[in-house]
Amino acid sequence: MRIDERKIAIAATCVAAVGILLILFLAETPKKASVAEAVVAPQNSFLEISGTAADVSSDRFQLCDRVCISVRSNDLPSSRLLYELCPATVAGRVQSFKGSKYFEAERIRIG
Amino acid sequence: MMLPLAAVAIGILLGIFSGLMPGMHSNTIASVLSTLPVSPEFFAFAIVAVLGAHIVFQFFPSVFLSIPDDTVVASVLPGHRMALAGRGREAITVCVFSVVIAAAISAVCTPLSLAAIPEIYALIKPHVWAMLAFASIYLLASERKAGKIAIAAFVFLLSGALGIATMQGGVADPLFPAFSGLFAASGIMLSFTSTRRIPEQCNEKTELDFLPCVFAGVLLGFFSDLLPGIAAPAQIAIFASAFLATEDARKFLALVSSIAASHAVFAFASLVSIGKAREGALAVMNEIRPVNSGDLPMLIGALLLSIGVCAFLLMKLSRHADALQKIGIANLNLGILAYLVCVVAIISGAEGLLVFATATAIGLLPPLLGIRRTHVMGLVIVPSILLAL
């Protein structure tokens, strides 16, 4: 059977385009994870983690379940409603500074 | 003394493995090794040996494995072309000789490069994005015909879109599935179109008229350590074709091999002098055992030892290349493809498999459409330009 290279090329282009769109879609959809999973997740992972807030300051706080991760709240309005030991769910990206992981919040839901 | 030697010996074995397995990169071995409970000293020497062995042994699969049918695929790689003409062993000799000479020259020039790299880097740093953009346009224009330039630009941008999408997501070790798909898996899939057997291979004797390409390769390897995203030897060789005659497959292979060797040696100087590890394996090493200029003689010595031992071993191995006729290459390639899928799934998970499949689809395009494979380096170049802007 003669292989038509043009058809293979068109099919490959379609697969590539769909694949890129899927990767972009997945990159913008947060995955539910524990704080421990967030600590070991690759940089830039988009996750949703839940726990209780601690060490709350104007621009950052710790989110803890069994372990804790530092969260940068980025002046999100909801971060001003945080208080010690209040339950919170945070969606954001895992980042790293000098080898330490932290969480860059994009959405904070209290309660 | 025993610890470095033991580490180098183990590193050589791992580097031979990674070099012989298409798609496997020394960075992957470095990532896996970094999780093991070994001393930082042992780790450093082992990684350097992996790098050296990988540089030498990667030429065996690139000459003898995953050869596509040249009636289906519009552009066949120079190494494959020589293997199909029964000159695969000669191709291996050219690569091995070029790697050894280039590594030795680069090692001698390392003290000079330690002083030169910071000066040159300070000069070009503000213009990195413009240099990358110019290099990309040059690569596209090298296709010469308008139709092919348009196709090449499409493939370049498609690869760039994959690069951006992959960097956005949290895929573990994202370049591994991407490069495995772009180069290894796509090559293997196209090789299934081939019904031809590798012909009997002639002896390894060759002319030494490719030496100027080796010297040019050393210089180009040095410059490649100054720019992000311009690291693939074949990509740099395209630039060199502007001022160097590389139509002869042997000269092209000599250039590519010497660029790979000098890029690796000067990466040490780049790491120590400007803190930029242009080799992923060295970046991992530097995290676990920070490197300073006093470590360079031992580390580069270990690299040269690894390259020397592996050059000898590869020349021995290439004498048995005819044995490849007896084993079913299609089955071997199928096994390698299955292995790649498994390793990607283990290292990068389900999202890594998606990146791998997408990259494989993109990697099929250049050979089918008759353009150079280096355009898929848009994967790294496009995000690098955007970051540098």
Report on the structure:
The complex is a heterodimer of chains A (111) and B (389). A five-stranded mixed beta barrel of chain A has the order 2-3-4-6-5. In chain A, 26% of the residues are buried. The radius of gyration of chain A is 19 Å and the shape is elongated. With 111 residues, chain A is α/β, with parallel strands linked by helices. Chain A contains two helices and six strands. Helix content of chain A is 26%, strand content 40%. Chain B is mainly alpha-helical. In chain B, 73% of the residues lie in helices and 0% in strands. Chain B has helices at residues 2-20, 26-33, 40-57, 59-64, 78-84, 88-124, 128-141, 146-168, 175-191, 211-224, 233-240, 249-274, 280-288, 296-318, 323-326, 329-369, 378-388. In chain B, helix 5 (78-84) packs antiparallel against helix 6 (88-124), helix 6 packs antiparallel against helix 14 and helix 8 (146-168) packs across helix 16. The N and C termini of chain B lie far apart (47 Å). The relative contact order of chain B is 0.20. The mean pLDDT of chain B is 84. The A-B interface holds A 3, 5, 8-9, 11-13, 15-17, 19-20, 22-24, 26-28, 41-47, 93-94, 99 and B 72-74, 158, 161-162, 165-174, 193, 287, 351, 354-355, 357-358, 361-362, 364-365, 368-369.
Q: What's the quaternary structure here?
A: heterodimer
CA gyration radius of chain A, whole angstroms: 19 Å
| CA distance, first residue to last residue of chain B | 47 Å
Q: What structural class do you assign from the helix and strand content of chain B?
A: mainly alpha
Mean pLDDT of chain B: 84
Number of helices of chain A: 2
Indicate the proportion of strand residues of chain A: 35-45%
- What are the secondary-structure elements of chain B, in order, as H or E? HHHHHHHHHHHHHHHHH
- Overall SS class of chain A: alpha/beta
> Can you summarize the main beta sheet of chain B?
none
Helix coverage percent of chain A: 25-40%
The unreliable regions of chain A are none
User: Strand order across the biggest sheet of chain A?
Assistant: 2-3-4-6-5
Radius of gyration of chain B: 20 Å
What percent strand of chain B?
A: under 5%
Q: Any idea what the shape of chain B is?
A: globular
Q: How far from one another are the termini of chain A?
A: 63 Å
Net shape of chain A: elongated
Put simply, the count of helices of chain B is 17
Largest sheet of chain A: 5 strands, mixed, barrel
**Mean pLDDT over the residues of chain A:** 87
